[in-house]
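Sample intake sheet
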Amino acid sequence: MAIELRRLTEKAKDMDLTLVAGEGGMTNLVTWVHMAETMEATDFLDAGHLVITTGIGLTSKEDILNLIKAFHERKAAGLIINIGPFIETIPEEAFFYCNDMDFPLFVVPWKAHLAEIMHIFCFAITKEEQRMMETSAAFKNAIFFPKQEELYVVPLSQRSFRVKWNYSVTVMKVKSKEKVTEERLETLCWSIDNNLRRTTDNFAVFVNDSDIILILANITEDRLISKVRDVQANVKRILKEGENLYMGVGRLTKSVRCVYKSYNQAKAIRRLQSRGKIGEDKIFYNNLGIYRLLMGIEDRDLIKEYYNHTLKALKDYDNVNGTDLCTTLRCYLSHNGSVKDAADELFVHRNTINYKLNKIEELLGVEMSSLSARTELMIAFNLSDIM
């Protein structure tokens, strides 16, 4: 769990804690608080630690500057220096360095109780972790066990999520050539949480398997679109090279009891996007045309039965014979039955398209001249996209 440095330090605003450099890094995420006094102690630091030091053991201004640089290189979230007998003043070079690197540097007077400051910070981080774990567990129950209301209605109500509020679920997946670790997903999740918390309280964000799930509550349609677009832009900004973001947004529900429906819609949209069936701008349920209608079919056996009745024979033939009749048919249908346009897209002669269409008609027992037959086949392809 992590909390934004700006939010964390506000918890100790009465402890004479003063930011003196590196304000640009106040959005850094803090995972824990750590005391470190020497260069050797930096080996025990993890990324995201907020470091506190009194300077005991340091003998020169160069030692102070080198220690600050070492903390920054270990990706610490920031540094608090206890001004007193060991560090009376901070060298000017340290201010320049922290400002250049956006590395937050705080000072606190010797009279301050460091133990109390550490207690405040650690308690805040722990409470934040507990809040997220309990909220995410309740929403997971709402998504995967919607009929067992006792698992989520009361727990969410205790966390100020009202039953009759509207809810929308966003499902995000980050893909890369290399495996995206759970730790990486948690980091992105923390970033989304801290960015949203500046402007709204009615949300939850958590990792489930390899997805990031965001739930926005008590929100208008326009505000939902704005918030999700902001999240999309912020996540893309912090993606590493080679990482790609795919996401889908389910429609607003009438109550928390229907959260699972919004989740299923969002996941189906995300799946369509990751398969290249829709563009990255098509993330909202209301903008998906016929897919909106097809996603409303909750009977998965019915979808599979329809697909098997219309297209399975053609798919099986392609698999056995190494042909591309399914690709040819879909291209032909997407061009409203134009042989010329299909031939142009596939870079083949029109006669080749006609030959393959004749074979398709033979295998499926349909006539391509029939509008109803073409419509049924296109629907089958659309259903295969969301299967």
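Comment: The mean pLDDT is 91. The first strand starts at residue 3 and ends at 4.
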